[in-house]
């Protein structure tokens, strides 16, 4: 099966961020920042409640690249990120990747990446670089 790619092509994944997701991510990474894991502490922050790790929502971009576009076999080479708004427990985050440039000769792709919440607010933006899968 040969896959075809074109500039402007996009794919998305969505996930509702649960309290368990935040604690599991904290345990996996060792980032136990109380802004993510301690509600009493978080009440005194600018956000007034716990927020998810920025990299948790950004990790959804990996799911798009690895499973949808370009898809299984993709090698994720790099990513720039800007965290623009907090992600709260219970938010549904949609990660979208859109092909920006395509170099079929070298098997490389650059994708614009965006994460939005259920209200359409952009929480994360960036650009990913990847090696296309070999069929």
Structure commentary:
The structure is a single chain. This protein has four helices and five strands; from the N terminus they run βααααββββ. The chain has a five-stranded antiparallel sheet, with helices on one face. The protein is α+β, with helices and mostly antiparallel strands and 135 residues long. A hairpin with a 5-residue loop joins strand 4 (108-116) and strand 5. The protein has a single domain, classed as Roll (Thiol Ester Dehydrase, Chain A), CATH 3.10.129.10. The model has no long low-confidence stretch (mean pLDDT 96). The chain has helices spanning 19-29, 34-37, 39-42, 54-67; strands spanning 10-16, 75-83, 92-103, 108-116, 122-131.
* Number of structural domains: 1
Strand order of the largest sheet: 1-3-4-5-2
In DSSP terms (H or I, runs of 4 or more residues), the helix count works out at: 4
Task: Describe the global form.
Answer: elongated
Structural class by secondary-structure content: alpha+beta
- The CATH superfamily label reads Hotdog Thioesterase
User: Which oligomeric form is depicted?
Assistant: single chain
Low-confidence stretches: none
CATH topology: Thiol Ester Dehydrase, Chain A
């Amino acid at each position: 099966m040969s896959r075809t790619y074109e500039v402007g092509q996009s794919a998305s994944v969505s996930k509702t961020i649960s309290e368990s997701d935040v604690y599991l991510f904290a345990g996996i990474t060792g980032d136990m920042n109380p802004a993510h894991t301690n509600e009493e502490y978080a009440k005194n922050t600018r956000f007034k409640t716990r927020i998810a790790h920025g990299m948790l929502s950004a990790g959804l971009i990996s799911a798009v690249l690895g499973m949808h576009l370009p898809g299984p076999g993709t090698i994720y080479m790099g990513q720039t990120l800007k965290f623009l708004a907090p992600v709260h427990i219970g938010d549904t985050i949609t990660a979208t990747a859109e092909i920006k440039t395509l170099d079929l000769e070298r098997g490389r792709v650059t994708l614009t990446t965006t994460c939005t919440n259920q209200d359409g607010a952009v929480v994360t933006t960036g650009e990913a670089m990847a090696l296309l899968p070999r069929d």
